[in-house]
């Protein structure tokens, strides 16, 4: 079982598809001589309003347009995988950290206890939800924290139907920031497990902050993007919470993902501002330590940001 949740799972995929409000992106990873290589990728824009990610409202408003974009991306990438991993925006699901001082011995009892706990925070009936959970940090005296994702089943199925209409079938469905964490864990290896670090994921519709300790997510917060919202302030508040409530002594590093959507100059200003606020080095997420790019692929910041969630879900089975 991966350290982080997935809605559905089967054998590891070699291709992944990410759907956002703006585009459809597919990445294909192959093994060459024991190394993982990005063998192909493609991205197709979506018409405005075709997809509007949300937790408790219809997401897919133009299924035909979404299916057509997926089909074009598949045509452009040059391969036709039957199975893909599907990555959705963070705001499609709700991630919670649930802790129990005493863990039931039976897995069925634990599952029911987790569902009972998260139903209080979900804005929809838990009976109508897709629920995924995995063990998180161990607590003193035998307790444990669990990482839980809930999403409306009909919303997840609307994305799945669009994929199936294009001739591909999701074997894994997951959220973007979860797989950015996976990408860092695989790329950095022991360096990402030795001390607490912070992921800052900037998306057009939201921002997500995740604190990772020893491979376990110990803090996760997603907020819709707002014009007057200061991301640097949110990061500073998270750093204070990490120190006061999570027993942290500062972040070993901060990984910034998705900032290239703001443009190169704005992304660099944000990176420097975050460094000043938390007093820690801030680096853009770069998965090339785990997946190499072929010589003909030019790796600019926008390409690395656009492919990182899809690469992360392909790599998730390699997380130790």
Précis, in short:
This protein is of the alpha/beta class and 320 residues long. Helix content is 30%, strand content 30%.
What do the pLDDT scores average to?
A: 91
Largest sheet: 6 strands, mixed
Order of helices and strands: EEEHEEHEEHEHEEEHEHEEH
Rg, Å, rounded: 19 Å
Query: Any low-confidence stretches, pLDDT <50, length ≥5?
Result: none
User: Can you name the CATH architecture of the largest domain?
Assistant: 2-Layer Sandwich
Please write the CATH class name of the largest domain: Alpha Beta
- CATH homology group of the largest domain: ATPase, nucleotide binding domain
Beta content comes to 25-35%
For the largest beta sheet, what order do the strands appear in spatially?
Answer: 8-4-1-2-3-14
Can you give keywords for this protein?
320 residues; 3 domains; Nucleotidyltransferase, domain 5; alpha/beta; 7 helices; six-stranded mixed sheet
Give the SSE layout.
Layout: E1 15-19, E2 23-32, E3 35-45, H1 63-77, E4 83-88, E5 94-100, H2 107-118, E6 129-138, E7 144-152, H3 153-165, E8 169-175, H4 176-188, E9 197-202, E10 206-213, E11 216-224, H5 231-244, E12 254-257, H6 264-278, E13 282-284, E14 292-293, H7 301-315
Parallel strand pairs: 1-4, 3-14, 4-8, 9-12, 12-13
Antiparallel strand pairs: 1-2, 2-3, 5-7, 6-7, 9-10, 10-11
